[in-house]
Amino acid sequence: MSPMQIALVAADRGGVVRLSELLTCGASRADVRRAVARGGIARVRDGVFAHPTADALVVLAAEHGGRVACVSVLRRLGVWLLDDDDRLHVLLEPKGRRHVHTGCRCVDHRDAGGAGFGIVPIERALVQLQRCVGDESFFAAYESAWRQGRLSAGARAWIREHLPAGKRWLVDVARRNADSGLESILRLRFHRLGVAMRSQVRILDVGRVDFVVDGILILEVDDRQNHDGESLRHRDLMRDARAAAAGYETLRFDYAMVIHDWPTVERAVLARLERARARSRRTA
Ligand SMILES: [Zn+2]
Ligand SMILES: [Zn+2]
């Protein structure tokens, strides 16, 4: 086989190919050596080669021994992630070896089913995320991917089926219209506390608010992107005043509070709720 033909086989396989596949396609070992010498393919590690235009992350995962997986797939797609984990997560064959390479900090995954090279589909990456990082990360990423239009009904059903049975409720309470990952996290935590909240509620004279709890308490969550410039601060104060006039109380939280100081947020909400409930019991 010519170097050009060998390069085409590699491109055809998604950019990375095993020596054994090239030999099966009719190349000799001498052909492969020539293709490497002419730059048609590059050696990734023993017995694995990449096309020059192959995706760098796919090549790195192949160097480690498998396929781009989990967090790494979702980060690449711009799905909202709770944790700043920039390590490469790699799906290895169930009994496949990990190959430590220069700068290797990879996180290994071994699922049932094959690995090969390339990038795992988003639905499989989400199921991996639940096992690897946890429920909250999964829930927020799932709602984010759904909001981005990346999860078909078939993909959502596949995810539900492949989650552990005790985790399927996460999918059942998820919604497509969460405004931000932070909002997803907050809704999940209050769901666990047995506090029901409506999200993205439109209130006359106030506009759309993030959450309304018990029909009386408004919760607003400022995501990282919302810088508190003067005009935004003024807008928030106006909203709070209008909400108060309409009979609501407002509590505001930011990213740091929800993520790093959850007990403070929880106590504030539960205390306000208790007070509001006591008041409505007295007036009833
Ligand atoms: Zn992982
Ligand atoms: Zn590695």
Brief digest:
The protein has 284 residues and is α+β, with helices and mostly antiparallel strands. Helices cover 48% and strands 15% of the residues.
Record keyword descriptors for this entry.
single chain, alpha+beta, Endonuclease, Chain A, 3 domains, binds zinc ion
What does this structure look like?
This is Type IV toxin-antitoxin system AbiEi family antitoxin domain-containing protein. InterPro entries: AbiEi_N, DUF559, Restrct_endonuc-II-like. It comes from Microbacterium fluvii. This protein is an alpha+beta fold and about 280 residues long. It folds into three domains: about 5-55; about 60-170, no CATH class; about 175-284, VSR Endonuclease (Endonuclease, Chain A, 3-Layer(aba) Sandwich), CATH 3.40.960. The chain contains 13 helices and ten strands. The protein has a four-stranded mixed sheet with strand order 7-8-9-10, with helices on both faces. A three-stranded antiparallel sheet has the order 1-3-2, sandwiched between helices. Helix 6 (about 120-130) runs parallel beside helix 8 (about 155-160) and helix 7 packs across helix 10 (about 180-190). The termini are far apart.
